[in-house]
């Protein structure tokens, strides 16, 4: 069952689907008032100062959860804040200027805090966090990834394609942000796969709009895997994706992810991590600027991560 919207146009209340309990799960309800959005905080969403005193009181953590970060530790640009109390084991140089943990509600995130990715001239847009201690999936195992992202980079940059989120060093897969005018194209790359299955361009998404993106990697052999992708706008629906596998086609439009194409691993050891931020921006650019906001990262071994709950 999908979410329902009730009330007069311009003053609707978004009612989550059956089985989704916003109060218990620690997310926000959104009331549309005259074209604006009012975020109603509920128990379990955390404290305004970014501490974790109220997180997860009524929500459970799944047994298959391998990694989770919502930057609840602190706000600001201290090392403790940006690595979320040590959850990220790599922080790129210059984090004092290229990273900031800020309130999430101001950017339509369900978490209390989010990572503001700042592109600076000194680091040529490089602002990167990484965890390198995830277990490598064995043959027959899966990995389910989730993150929320709000792209805000300016239009018309000389470097029109960046890869903000990926495995350990973009060894096997990455999310590519293809920059456009007021929009960006969501693209997934598979680095070990030959043409035309090395790139999977997807839908155009709006800048300054927050999306939940989920990816499933199914390692079915020593050298091969399947990939499946979902894109949500949780202000519209938490259960029905805006876009999914059928919306991601390969380089020559001969296949889609909905047909379960076989993809090739370049190096399975690269699946031991996940990277957030931005890998850098080449060419001239109006530095400094906010490249994106990112939050609510999770990696599971057993099932799709789903919407952010407050517990993970």
What does this structure look like?
With 312 residues, the chain is mainly beta. It has one domain: Jelly Rolls (Sandwich). It has 3 helices and 19 strands. The strands form 5 sheets. Strands 5, 7, 8, 10, 15, 16, 17 and 19 form an 8-stranded antiparallel sheet that branches. The model is unreliable at 1-58 (pLDDT under 50).
Keywords:
312 residues, mainly beta, Jelly Rolls, eight-stranded antiparallel sheet, four-stranded antiparallel sheet, disordered N terminus
Topology:
Blueprint: E1 4-6, E2 13-15, H1 22-25, E3 29-33, E4 36-40, E5 65-69, H2 79-82, E6 90-91, H3 95-98, E7 99-103, E8 113-119, E9 126-131, E10 142-151, E11 161-166, E12 173-179, E13 183-190, E14 199-206, E15 211-219, E16 224-232, E17 263-264, E18 274-279, E19 289-300
Total beta strands: 19
Instruction: Please give the CATH architecture.
Output: Sandwich
Mean pLDDT: 86
* H/E series: EEHEEEHEHEEEEEEEEEEEEE
Which spans have pLDDT < 50 for at least 5 consecutive residues?
A: 1-58
Which CATH class is shown? Mainly Beta
Provide the helix percentage: under 10%
What is the straight-line distance between the termini? 23 Å
Stated plainly, the CATH topology is called Jelly Rolls
| Overall tally of domains | 1
Task: Calculate Rg over CA atoms.
Answer: 19 Å
| Mass-distribution shape | globular
Number of helices: 3
Give the strand content. Answer: 35-45%
Main sheet attributes: strand count, strand direction, barrel closure: 8 strands, antiparallel
Structural class: mainly beta
């Amino acid at each position: 069952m999908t979410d329902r919207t009730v009330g007069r146009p311009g003053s609707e209340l978004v009612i989550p689907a059956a089985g989704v309990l916003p109060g218990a799960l620690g997310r926000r309800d959104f009331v549309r008032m005259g074209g604006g959005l009012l975020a109603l905080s509920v128990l379990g969403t955390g404290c305004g100062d970014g501490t974790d005193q109220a997180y997860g009181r009524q929500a459970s953590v799944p047994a298959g959860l391998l990694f989770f970060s919502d930057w609840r530790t602190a706000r600001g640009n201290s090392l403790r804040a940006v690595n979320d109390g040590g959850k990220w084991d790599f922080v790129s140089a210059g984090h004092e200027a290229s990273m900031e943990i800020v309130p999430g509600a101001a950017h339509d995130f369900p978490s209390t805090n989010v990572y503001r990715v700042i592109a600076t001239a000194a680091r040529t847009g490089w602002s990167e966090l990484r965890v390198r201690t995830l277990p490598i999936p064995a043959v027959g195992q899966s990995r389910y990834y989730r993150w929320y992202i709000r792209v805000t980079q300016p239009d018309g940059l000389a470097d029109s394609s960046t890869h903000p989120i990926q495995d350990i060093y973009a060894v096997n897969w990455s999310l590519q942000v293809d920059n456009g005018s007021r929009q960006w194209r969501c693209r997934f790359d598979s680095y070990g796969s030959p043409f035309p299955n090395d790139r999977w361009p997807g839908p155009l998404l709006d800048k300054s709009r927050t999306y939940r993106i989920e990816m499933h990697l199914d390692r079915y052999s020593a050298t091969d895997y399947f990939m499946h992708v979902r894109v949500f706008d949780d202000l519209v629906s938490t259960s029905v994706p805006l876009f999914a596998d059928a919306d991601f086609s390969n380089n020559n439009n001969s296949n889609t992810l909905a047909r379960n194409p076989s993809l090739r691993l370049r190096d399975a050891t690269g699946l031991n991590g996940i990277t957030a931020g931005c890998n850098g921006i080449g060419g001239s650019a109006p530095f400094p600027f906010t490249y994106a906001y990112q939050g609510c990262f999770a990696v599971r071994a057993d099932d799709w991560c789903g919407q952010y709950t407050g517990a993970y």
